[in-house]
Amino acid sequence: MPSFTLDEVMQALGTATVLEEKLQNFRDVVTDTRKITEGALFVALKGERFNGENFAKDAIEKGAAGVLVSNGFAYGEPLQGTVIMFDGDTQTAYQLLARFHRRRFDIPVIAITGSNGKTTTKDLTAAVLSAKFNVLKTQANFNNEIGLPLTLLQLNKSHEAAVVEIGMRGLHQIEALAPMAEPDIGIITNVGETHIELLGSIENIAQAKGEMAEAIPAGGTLIINNDNPYTAAMYKKAKPGVKVITFGLEKDADIKASDIVSDGSSTTFKCQLGKGGAACMLTIPMLGNHNVANALAAVAAGYALGLNTMEIAQGLDSLEMTGMRFETSRKGNVNIINDAYNASPMSMEAALRTLGEITKGKGAIAVLGDMLELGDVAVSAHEKVGQQAAEAGVKALVTLGQLGEKIAAGAKAAGLAEVYTTSTHAEAAEVLKTIVKPEDTVLFKGSRGMQMEKIIELL
Fold first, then answer.
1. 322 falls within a domain
2. Does residue 21 contact residue 66 with C-beta atoms inside 8 Å?
């Protein structure tokens, strides 16, 4: 729990006023009155549908030592705790406290962004580094303007490194968030069509992701995917004095994979560490070349921090994955692949290709939902996914949602005969109950808003 004195809070915020001073020490920083601990500072965040300032009194009554409010706070009757008014919105204040706290620790911070694979790469990077360091990592995918400070505020004296994920939904967001973490190492996994509805073009997406490259200070390290043309070009954005490390499977790269072999539950590959450097065999408990690429980014971070091949391999063995990322399991006598956390054209293609590789055209069923936020390319992107499902050799395709019907259309046009369209989770589950045979492998994937995992729960 991060502790602050009143003086430290005022120093972190820069422009703030103490309206009422009762206590000068805060044992924690919280934004949810349900998580108030004795002596905490309650930061009253505001949103479109809520206003934490309405709960300032409640926070004090639950044991908070103070509350942090905006300059729009309607100050009425005195509160039995310290009241700090920030000259701006409290979300910014929360981030400033997180940055102040991060600066207390002279440890490497690795920040990760990209259109796909951020969370998987975060988990892999934390695993690699855990062989040498006690690592703090972003939980789940808390990678936005609230999630990132929440992670940074968990830093304590036991931590020797931190791995954080930074997402974006527009230009200048990474530019605004990265300085809070002050990363020493930045990883950009790839650039794809995710959020194209919000940014308008893949070039704009690349520009937004490139803000990570610009955020790394001289003396730091930028790690980029050399197989993706947009990320490969981002070395140009690095500041003078920033070391650039490339990774890849296809193009020449500093950290390169070859001889990739999967056994149905894990993947082994040869990894070259540095051009002309040592090579080693590594194994990840995951499937798909896209996950090998994610692992290479993690290896690159370990390489940048001086880990040897034995430590890198040991770290990968300790991998703890965030759920619903190509998560394999057995349900009765059927193989389930739960990749339902999110979807984009790039990740759909990778998942279907991997499904085809591990099933070799036998007993593969794809259950696919809408990919959201694709704007003008939505119809063509979904039709292409249907084509890719057919090319992957699935025996059947079940789609969910209106755009899912475009996936179905693309699959039929590509010659797939067994195609089903559904509009509810229950309907999709009923279809599966009639078509799934013993030892089939069923992939579930769609955008987060589609909640494809609910179909699994209904089976």
1. no
2. no
